[in-house]
Design goal:
Helix content of chain A: 25-40%
Strand content of chain A: 25-35%
Oligomer: homodimer
Low-confidence stretches of chain A: none
Number of strands of chain A: 16
Structural class of chain A: alpha/beta
Largest interface: A-B, 62 and 62 residues
C-alpha cells in the first residue's frame, strides 16, 4: 500500500479540521482508498492549537525549511491564509518537489501563474479545491466531470457570510447592520468583514472558477465587483413583492463580446434553483453546451467541509500520479488573446423617488425610451411630503444604457434613482 | 499530444449524442484537454442512423471482432443497452485490453463483478458515469470529490420519467394515467414504461451509487422497490395541504443495523432542496461526516447530457493512466460482511377511510399506540355515505410497526387504510 506523508501549515479552523479528518480517518482511507496517509509534520506557532489537537510534539516543525527538507513529507497543505508567509512557504514546498494543496483563494487568484510555473518546473502537483466554496466539489467537477462541455456561463452564491446576511434581511426583515452583527456573533463574519461584504472573497473565487470554466486565466482585477453594504430593507421587500430573492451572485459568462466576470447583489427569480440557497449554504450553477444546466449545492465554508475538500485533493494527488499542476491541461494552448467585456447585458431593478406631480412619469419613460430600455413591470407608491416611489424591472439591456439613463434622471429635479440592482430571471 | 481512438457501439439517442459531441469538440479537446480524441470505429446496424450522423462509411464496423481487433481503438463506448449483446461486447473489449465506458445501468448493476474481474485481468479501465443520472457527475463526485467522507446517506430523484409524471400530478392536478400519457407523447416515457414507473431503473442506479458511497457491493436484488403506479390525485393533494411534495426517491443509508437501500414514492417537505427538483431534472443529496450536506442537480437523461457524462469518462480515461477499473480502489478491503437492513425507520403518511361513528378514532389511536407509533398531525374530513377520511403523518417509526398497524386496522370493520406513503422531513 502506498504511503503518503502530509505536512499541514497552520492549524487554524481549516488546518485543524484537516488534521482531525486525516487522523480520524486514516484506517478508513487505508481500506477504501488503498493509501496510507499520515500527517508527518505540522507547522504551527501556537502551542495551544497543536496541543488541543493532540499533535505529537515530535511532529511539530520549527520552520518551513524543516518541513520541505523532510523526506517523509510528500504533500504540503497550506492553511495559513493571506499572502506573504503563505506564498513563501508554498513556493518553498513546490521548489522542493512537494505537491501542494491549498485553501488560499487570495493566494491562488493573485499568484497562480507563479505557483504553476514552480509546480511545473519541479513536476509537483498543485491542488486548490478548498480555495472555492468549501464543501462543494466544484473545481473537481469542472476539471473532471464537465470537461467535455463548452461552458457558456457559471453563476454562484459563493460567499457564506453575505448569503447569511441576505437570508436574514429577506426572511426576518433585518437591516444590513443588524444582520451583520448577528453574523459576527455566530462567527460567520470576521471582525473586519470587508473582504466578504465588499465582494473581494467572491471575486477571488470567481477568478479561479472562471479560469477553469473558460480555459483561460481570468485575472482577479478583471472582476467587476459591488458589495452588499448599501442594500436597504426597502429593496429587499420590494424585490420580494415582485417575486425575487436578493443574493450576492458571482457571474461568469462567455459571450461574443468576450468574457464577463462580475460579483454584485442580484435579484433572482423565486423559482430559480439559486433562490432557495439559504443561510451559509453556497451553490454554483453551470451551463454547458452538452450537459445543459447543472447545480452543485453545499456548505461554503467551515472547518470540516473545507477540510473535506483538502482531504479530497490529498487523496487525489496520492492516487493520480499523472495529474500535476492542474489549472490548465494544455498551457501552451490556453487562450491568450481573450477579450474581457466592459459592458454586459442584464435585466435591472430600479427604485426611484419622484415628485408627485403630473408629467413626471412621461419624462422618466422618455429617458428610458431614448436609451432603448423597456420596462417589464412597475409599481408606484405614494410617500409622504408630495413624493412618490416607483419600483420597476426592465427587460435585458446594456449596463451602459442603464448608467446613462440613471445619470440623466438624476440630473433632472423631478426624480432621484435610489437603487439600481441587477436581475437574473 | 496523446491520440486516443474511440469506438462507439450503438448510435441511438446516447451513442448518437456522444458521436456528435466528440466530432464537434475534437479541436476543443485538443486545446483544452491536451488530447486528440478521434472516433475511429462505430458499430451500428442501422444504416440510416449512421448516415444521419454523417459517419464515414469506412468507420462502420461489421461486427464486434472488427472493433476489438482494431489497434486504433483504445476506448470502447457501449451505448447498446440491455444485457445480452451489451455484455458480450463489453467483455470482448475488456478482454482485448480496451478500456470501456458504458451508460448501461442494468448491465453494470447486475454484472459489475464480472466486468470488473475482466477489466482487472487485462489492466483495462471501466467507467460508468453515464449509467446514473445523465448530466449529474455524481459518480466522479463520489469517487474523487467526496472520497474523504464517511457517507451516512444519499437520497436522490434519479429517474426523469417518474419525476416528470409526479410534477404534472402535483402542479397540474393530473391523474397518473394522464401524466403518463403526456410523458409518452413527449418521449419522456417509453411505450412500455415498466422499468421507470415500477422503480427498476432507479433501483439499478441506486445499487451502483450505494456501492460507491458505502464502499461495498450493494446488489440490485437488495433494493426495496415500490413504483408510482398506485398513486392517487387525492394523496398528492393531501400531501400538498400538509406541506409535502411527492417524489420517487432512491434512498441509501448506512445505520448501525446495516445498509438500507430503497426506492419508493416519498413525501418530501416543501423546503427540502429535493422538493423543488421538477420535471425531467434529477438530483442527488449526499450527507458525509466532514462535508455535511451536498446536492448535485441537473438533467437526468437525454442525448447530450448523457453524452456529456460519457465524454467526461473518455477524457478521464485518456488523461489518468493509473486509474483503471474503478468501483473500489481497494478490492481486497471492500467490506464483505455487510448487513442489509430488513427493517428501516421513516415517518409515514396514511390515508384512512373510516366509518363516521363515535369511538372509531379511539380504536385507531389505540392500534397506533400499541405499535409505538405517534402522530405528528392529522386532518379529518367528512365524506359521503356515512364515511369520513382521515389523513395523518407519523413521527419516525419502524416500517414493520406501520405494517403491523395497517394490517390490524384493515382487519377491523371500522376503517380501511387507503394509502401508506413514506415521508422525509
Amino acid at each position: 500500500m502506498k504511503k503518503i506523508g502530509v505536512a499541514i501549515l497552520g492549524l487554524g479552523v481549516v488546518g485543524g479540521g484537516t488534521y482531525r479528518i486525516l487522523t480520524e480517518h486514516r484506517e478508513f482511507y487505508r481500506k477504501t482508498q488503498n493509501v496510507d496517509i499520515e500527517v508527518t509534520s505540522v507547522l504551527e506557532t501556537s502551542r495551544s492549537r497543536a496541543e488541543s489537537l493532540a499533535v505529537p510534539p515530535e511532529k511539530i516543525a520549527v520552520n518551513i525549511a524543516e518541513v520541505v527538507c523532510n523526506p517523509d513529507v510528500n504533500i504540503v497543505v497550506e492553511c495559513i491564509g493571506g499572502i506573504s508567509a503563505a506564498k513563501e512557504y508554498v513556493l518553498a514546498a513546490l521548489n522542493a518537489g512537494k505537491s501542494v494543496v491549498t485553501s488560499n483563494k487570495e493566494l491562488y487568484a493573485k499568484f497562480s501563474h507563479e505557483l504553476e510555473r514552480a509546480a511545473k518546473r519541479h513536476n509537483a502537483g498543485l491542488f486548490f479545491e478548498a480555495s472555492c466554496v468549501g464543501g462543494v466539489p466544484i473545481i473537481r467537477t469542472l476539471l473532471d466531470g464537465l470537461q467535455g462541455n463548452k461552458i457558456s456561463s457559471l453563476m454562484g452564491i459563493i460567499n457564506g457570510t453575505t448569503n447569511y446576511i441576505l437570508t436574514k434581511m429577506t426572511n426576518e426583515g433585518m437591516s444590513y447592520e443588524a444582520a451583520l452583527a448577528e453574523a459576527k456573533k455566530l462567527g460567520y463574519a470576521e471582525a473586519d468583514p470587508t473582504s466578504d461584504v465588499e465582494g473581494f472573497d467572491a471575486a477571488y473565487k470567481l477568478s479561479i472558477l472562471a479560469s477553469l470554466a473558460f480555459h483561460t486565466k481570468v485575472p482577479f482585477t478583471n472582476v467587476f465587483r459591488e458589495g452588499i453594504t448599501n442594500l436597504s430593507k426597502e429593496d429587499v421587500e420590494d424585490g420580494k413583492q415582485l417575486g425575487y430573492t436578493l443574493k450576492l451572485l458571482a457571474i461568469g459568462k462567455r459571450t461574443d463580446a468576450g468574457i464577463e466576470v462580475r460579483v454584485h447583489p442580484t435579484f433572482v427569480r423565486k423559482d430559480h434553483p439559486l433562490a432557495s440557497v439559504a443561510d451559509a449554504f453556497n451553490a454554483v450553477f453551470v451551463e454547458g453546451d452538452a450537459v445543459g444546466e447543472v447545480m452543485l449545492y453545499g456548505r461554503g465554508a467551515g472547518s470540516l467541509p473545507t477540510g473535506s475538500a483538502i482531504v479530497s485533493d490529498i487523496i487525489y494527488a496520492a492516487t493520480h500520479s499523472d495529474v500535476k499542476y492542474s489549472t490548465f491541461k494544455n498551457d501552451a494552448e490556453a487562450e491568450k488573446d481573450v477579450n474581457f467585456a466592459d459592458d454586459f447585458m442584464s435585466a435591472y431593478y430600479l427604485r426611484l423617488s419622484v415628485s408627485d406631480e403630473s408629467g413626471v412619469l412621461a419624462k422618466i419613460a422618455s429617458v428610458f425610451g431614448k436609451n432603448h430600455i423597456s420596462i417589464v413591470e412597475m409599481i408606484q407608491r405614494e410617500k409622504e411630503g408630495g413624493k412618490a416611489s416607483i419600483v420597476l424591472v426592465t427587460h435585458e439591456t446594456h449596463e451602459l444604457a442603464i448608467k446613462n439613463a440613471v445619470e440623466k434622471i438624476n440630473s433632472t429635479e423631478i426624480a432621484t434613482v435610489e437603487s439600481v440592482l441587477r436581475v437574473v430571471s
